[in-house]
Each structure stands twice: as structure tokens, then as C-alpha cells.
TrEMBL record:
Alphabetized Gene3D superfamilies for the sequence: 2.60.40.290, Glycosidases (3.20.20.80)
Domain of life: Bacteria
Pfam families registered for this protein in UniProt: CBM_2, Glyco_hydro_10
Signal sequence, renumbered to the chain: 1-34
The name this protein goes by in its record: Beta-xylanase
The protein's Enzyme Commission number: 3.2.1.8
Source species of the chain: Glycomyces rhizosphaerae
Keyword Transmembrane belongs to the record: no
């Protein structure tokens, strides 16, 4: 994972001009004629995280969910699997299988992990809540040490404390943590996390602090104190927003935290509306997503944006606010919403991002004849190069009905694949022999699918684009 962090830092250095693309000012030479068509490639190019909160069961059991998460996002957060009730349900009895699944998936797919969360008033077992001050402190220190140590070097950043401020005029939240340990529980948590993993970025995370208000003022006061002790790196703005209500003060509010020397991050973005959504509402939602993404893209110290779920039906919103929902970037069938396109464009990517898999058409008047002599064709493109590596995206197009495909090419120089997603096979040598995964091999004539990979290469050399031979499997 450290490699992954270095990769994106290198991209930042090499792609400063891309920040202007994100603002619609112009394109760098890297992207002239080759704009990113996934959120991931666009975010990589400007050195930002584009993350998604994931559900372990779907990651394990749903191939299209897995493929979309791997293709579209460069950062993952466990929606529930790293919370205290999932990792230490009984005192000292740690269960990491779900969290491991997510961290392993992220590593396999070259993604970073934003950890969520060590200390929260919710989803914390009752055995913790009943402890006295001394025992609660011991339990907190043990929990943070154990979880942080397990994922040291693999989880890039942590929400150390979550939702410690109430909705009541900026007062501290009246939680069992505050009642038992006093306000010092926050400092204890950050000191412990810093010592446990000195290289991880440590965040304080909360909702309804996106604008300048009493609650964000309290977070600001806490952040000042933690920053002065060098135990805080950033502030997470959850951003569970309502249609048409991106706070007008959001940009200035984030800036005041940056001015403290902190990173900022949009950690749980969703924008809910009254369902069912009509076209106007989806357009307004796209506008709201565009605005939030622009705010982060424009701020060098905004580390990224995480959306709180993949598809509308994956979201926590309808269960908590009945009659509302449709809050995310993908429809239930994985097709991309207008909000997806807005985020892609605000990150500097091009077009609508559609289609990842194009619908087949059988109308001879509108279908160009497939190239003869080959059951499929495949093309590579470099979506974000840096000095010692690059991210590629590849498209496989079926010219006939396929039950599987194989791709092969030989690197002309020092390029070698370091990790890949949505493709399997013998990938790391000079000659690459790839094949479809179980979920993306069946294509009707005219359909296409994508896969991607990162390479390492000699310092400063050009990332070449070899010709790919594609054959039906
Ligand atoms: O795993 C059990 C399952 O075994 C059981 O059958 C089922 C019946 O209710 O519950 C399942 O657990 C649920 C869990 O999500 C996993 O799906 C819990 O009931 C449910 O309360 C829990 O909700 C989560 C919520 O946090 C809990 O507070 C949401 O998925 C999750 O999206 C939400 O995330 C929070 C962030 O952590 C902090 N910020 C706000 C955000 C939204 O509420």
C-alpha cells in the first residue's frame, strides 16, 4: 500500500497541470486526446483519492459489484467491517476476517484504504460501554493498538474518532466516552493511534460540519488542540447532504482547516432526495456532486472524496430516512447516473464515462460491420503516467458472441505489470498473457468490457502502448 501512496504522490508531482483540467481551464499534454473515462483514472491523474464505502458480502458474492469497485475507485472504506462491533465483539476477542477481505481486495487492485473507525458512540459493544474510566481507557488503547498494528502499512489513514460533537449548538456529544473519560478521551485516542502507526494519516470525522456553523466551530477548536500536539493530520467531512443544499460556505470552511496545516477529506458523500427521482432532480443532484467534487479538486490539501456506497440500493439512506434515497452515483443495474458524469468531469475526466459495457445492437442500419478476421479486438491506453510507472486502461471489444477472451502483448522495454484488476493470467513478465475474469468473459457481438493495471518502468522512460492480440477463449 505504501507503493500505492507513493504512486499517487508521484502523480501529483507530474500532473499539476491536470488540476487546471479539473477546473475546466485546459488540458495537460498528458491528457490531450486521451481524457480519463473512469473516476479512478481521472482521480489518479490529479493525485486524489476517489473512494467508495464497501459491503463485504457484496464484495465476496457479487462479481459486477466487485468489478465496478475495482474499475472506478482507487480507495476503499469499510462501510461496517472495521467498526468496533465487527473487529472486537468481545473483550480481547478480535475478528478480522471481514476487514481482511476488504484490505486484501484493495491491495489486489492497487487501491488505498481509509480506515473507519476506532472510537465511536455507535456500533460499539455493550461490554465497552459499561466499563469504568480506567478500564475503558485500557480497552480503547488495546483496541486501537491491535487494529492499527494489524493494518500498519496497509491502511493509509484512519478516522480515529467519529461524531464526537453533538447537533446541539456545538456542544460535545453526550456519549458514554465523554461521560466516563471526559473530553480527554479524544486526545488519548489520537496519541495511541499516532504511536501505533506513525505513518498513517489521522482524521477526526463528523457530519453536518461541511458549512461554517456552531458544530464545525467546535471541530475547529478540537482540531487546533490536536494539531498543536502533532497528533492530527486531517478532518473528515462526512457530507451526507440533501438535494440542493451544498452549504454555500463549504469551500471557505474547508479552507480554514487547511489553513491550520491540516488535510481535509470528503469521507461519506451521498446526496439524498425524495424518491422516486425525476430527471430534474437527477440533474440538480449532478450539479451538487459537481460542486462538492470541484471544491476538493481545487484544494491541494483535500486528499479525496469517498462516496458512501456504490449503487442507490446499497445506501443506508432509505432505511434511515424512509421516502428518500437515490443518493449515490450508480443506479441499481450499475448504469451511471448524471451525478457520475458530473464527478468524472469535475475530476478532469471526459465524456459521460458510458459505456463501460456497451449494449449490443442488432440493427444492421446502425451497426458498423465488425472487423473481419478476429473474434475480438483489444486496445490499451495510458490513463496516468508518472516517472517510474503508469496506470493503463484496456478495452476488449467482442466482434462475435464470446464466452471468454484472451489477450497477449509483449512490452518493448522495461515496463512490467505490478498489479491488475478485472483480468487474470500470467501478467508480470515481458510477455503478458491475460484472460477474462469469471464475470467479464461473456460478451455479445458489439459489446465491450474493460480491465486495468499499473506498471513499473525505468525512471523517466516513456510508457509504451503495445499492440494487443485478442482471441476468443
Ligand atoms: O449485520 C447485521 C445483520 O446480521 C442483521 O441481520 C441486520 C438486521 O438489522 O443488521 C445487520 O447490521 C446492520 C449493519 O449496518 C450492516 O448492514 C445494522 O443493523 C445497521 O444498523 C448498520 O447500519 C450502518 C450504520 O452506519 C450504523 O450506524 C450502515 O450500514 C452504515 O452505512 C452507517 O454508516 C455511518 C458511518 O459509519 C458514520 N457516519 C454515518 C453513516 C451513516 O449512518
Amino acid at each position: 500500500m505504501l507503493l500505492n501512496r507513493q504512486r499517487r504522490r508521484a502523480v501529483i508531482a507530474g500532473a499539476v497541470t491536470l488540476a487546471t483540467a479539473a477546473l475546466g481551464i485546459g488540458l495537460s499534454t498528458q491528457f490531450a486526446g486521451a481524457q480519463a473515462t473512469t473516476l479512478r483514472a481521472a482521480a489518479d491523474a490529479i493525485g486524489k483519492d476517489i473512494g467508495v464505502a464497501v459491503d463485504v458480502n457484496k464484495l465476496q458474492n457479487n462479481a459486477e459489484y466487485r468489478n465496478t469497485v475495482a474499475t472506478e475507485f482507487n480507495s476503499l472504506t469499510a462501510e461496517n467491517a472495521m467498526k468496533w462491533d465487527a473487529t472486537e465483539p468481545q473483550d480481547g476477542n478480535y475478528t478480522f476476517s471481514q476487514a481482511d477481505t476488504i484490505v486484501n481486495f484493495a491491495e489486489d487492485n492497487g487501491q488505498s484504504v481509509h480506515g473507519h473507525t476506532f472510537v465511536w458512540h455507535a456500533q460499539t459493544p455493550s461490554w465497552v460501554q459499561g466499563l469504568d474510566a480506567t478500564a475503558m481507557r485500557t480497552a480503547m488503547v488495546d483496541h486501537i493498538n491491535t487494529v492499527a498494528n494489524r493494518y500498519e502499512g496497509r491502511v493509509d489513514s484512519w478516522d480515529v474518532v467519529n461524531e464526537v460533537v453533538s447537533d446541539n449548538n456545538g456542544a460535545m456529544r453526550d456519549s458514554f466516552w465523554l461521560r466516563t473519560m471526559g473530553e480527554g478521551f479524544i486526545t488519548t485516542a489520537f496519541q495511541t493511534a499516532r504511536a501505533a502507526d506513525p505513518n498513517a494519516d489521522l482524521y477526526i470525522n463528523d457530519y453536518s460540519i461541511e458549512g461554517d456553523n456552531a458544530k464545525s466551530d467546535t471541530i475547529y477548536r478540537i482540531a487546533q488542540g490536536l494539531k498543536s500536539q502533532n497528533i492530527l493530520d486531517g478532518v473528515g467531512f462526512q457530507s451526507h447532504l440533501i438535494l440542493g443544499q451544498v452549504p454555500s460556505t463549504m469551500e471557505a470552511n474547508l479552507q480554514r482547516f487547511v489553513d491550520l496545516g491540516l488535510k481535509v477529506r470528503i469521507t461519506e458523500l451521498d446526496i439524498r432526495l425524495n424518491t422516486p427521482a425525476d430527471a430534474n432532480e437527477l440533474a440538480q443532484q449532478a450539479e451538487d456532486y459537481r460542486r462538492v467534487t470541484e471544491i476538493c479538486a481545487e484544494l491541494a490539501d483535500c486528499s479525496g472524496i469517498t462516496v458512501w456506497g456504490l449503487r442507490d440500493n446499497d445506501s443506508w439512506v432509505p432505511g434511515t430516512f424512509p421516502g428518500t434515497g437515490a443518493a449515490l452515483l450508480f443506479f441499481e443495474d450499475y448504469s451511471k447516473k448524471p451525478a457520475y458524469t458530473a464527478v468524472l468531469n469535475a475530476l478532469g475526466g471526459g465524456g459521460t464515462g458510458n459505456p463501460t459495457t456497451t449494449p449490443a445492437t442488432s440493427d444492421p442500419a446502425t451497426t458498423s460491420p465488425p472487423p473481419t478476421g478476429s473474434g475480438c479486438t483489444a486496445t490499451l491506453s495510458v490513463s496516468s503516467p508518472w516517472n517510474t510507472g503508469a496506470t493503463y486502461s484496456a478495452t476488449v471489444k467482442a466482434n462475435q458472441n464470446l464466452n471468454g477472451w484472451k489477450v497477449t502483448w509483449t512490452w518493448p522495454g522495461s515496463e512490467r505489470i505490478s498489479n491488475a484488476w478485472s483480468v487474470t493470467g500470467t501478467l508480470t513478465g515481458a510477455t503478458v498473457n491475460g484472460a477474462n475474469e469469471s464475470y467479464n468473459g461473456t460478451l455479445a457481438a458489439g459489446q465491450s468490457t474493460t480491465f486495468g493495471f499499473n506498471i513499473t518502468k525505468a525512471d523517466g522512460s516513456t510508457a509504451s502502448v503495445p499492440t494487443v492480440t485478442c482471441t476468443p477463449a
